[in-house]
Design goal:
This protein is α+β, with helices and mostly antiparallel strands. It folds into two domains: 87 residues, no CATH class; 74 residues, no CATH class. 38% of the residues lie in helices and 15% in strands. The protein has six helices and eight strands. The chain has a four-stranded mixed beta sheet, with no helix packed on it. It has a two-stranded antiparallel sheet with strand order 1-2. A two-stranded antiparallel sheet has the order 4-5. Strand 6 and strand 7 form a beta hairpin. Helix 1 crosses helix 2. 14% of the residues are buried.
């Protein structure tokens, strides 16, 4: 692929993102232009991997921060810009994972058996007690009304089922 083709692909991806949502980020443009795979982005955003290979392999915090920066379109009205900024600045909800093979908590050392749940923090598995989430209730997927009510009345809700979500690792 020539440099001009790469530039065209990036510009098309950036324009499409701006048109669709009113803002862009370098990461979204790289994913949309197929220069970076989405499956690598989420672990990086959550701190599970230190840097995105081929883009910031030295792990320079200034470069990593640039990748996380979002750019708003100047054509968006002020109230909508404010709403977008609030949405983008909202922290990612915590996510817990179903354990599929025995593991242990990296903080207290307790063994967590298959069927238990862990929280990953900086590539370390924590039991829910060490992650200070053992008082949360697991809500199975499928009951949107219950999830909506639980989210509305909880100051500590996460994404999806457990308020945080249970995923399979």
């Amino acid at each position: 692929m020539t440099q001009q083709e790469v530039q065209d692909r990036i510009l098309q991806s950036a324009y499409a993102a701006l048109k669709r949502q009113g803002y862009i980020s370098p990461i979204e443009v790289l994913v949309a232009s197929r220069m970076l795979q989405q499956q690598h982005v989420e672990p990086w955003r959550r701190g599970r991997i230190p840097h995105l290979d081929n883009f910031s392999s030295n792990g320079d915090p200034a470069v990593e921060k640039l990748y996380l920066t979002n750019y708003l379109s100047a054509a968006i009205p002020e109230p909508k810009q404010k709403a977008i900024k609030e949405k983008l600045e909202k922290p990612e909800p915590p996510t817990v994972f179903d354990v599929i093979r025995p593991t242990e908590c990296s903080e207290c050392g307790i063994e967590i058996w298959k069927g238990g749940m862990i929280y990953l923090e900086q590539r370390k598995a924590l039991c829910l007690a060490c992650a200070r989430m053992n008082d949360l209730e697991y809500l199975p997927a499928g009951d949107t009304a219950l999830t909506r009510r639980a989210t509305k009345h909880s100051s500590r809700c996460g994404r999806g089922a457990l308020q945080p979500l249970a995923r399979t690792v």
